[in-house]
Amino acid sequence: MRLIVAVVGKPRNAALAAAIAEYETRAARYWPLEVHEVREERASGISSTLVRSREGERLRERAGSARLVACDPGGKSMDSEAFARWLQKERDHDRDAAFVIGGAYGLSDAILQPASMNL
Length: 119
What we know:
5-stranded parallel beta sheet; globular; 20% strand; 39% helix; alpha/beta
């Protein structure tokens, strides 16, 4: 099992970036981990739908053939134990999982609809 995190943009705060790097190092001890930061779409003069669509294309490309897990405010909430059980099940079935995190305007329908789970 391989875990992929595909996210729009980079953290602008140095302390936050350092904390993320530390967490990535810890997580990589347990699963092969890939983190892909895709470019934010400039929103000046275009609709939020088009921004989401373009960012979604870049995210989808980075997720590859892995099961999509959309990290979305409207998604399902799980406690740590439920999440650990889900992750173990995915690992037992040797499925790659891609956690996809949108930008300022969220995720496009092209990501949300085919996602296996919305968190």
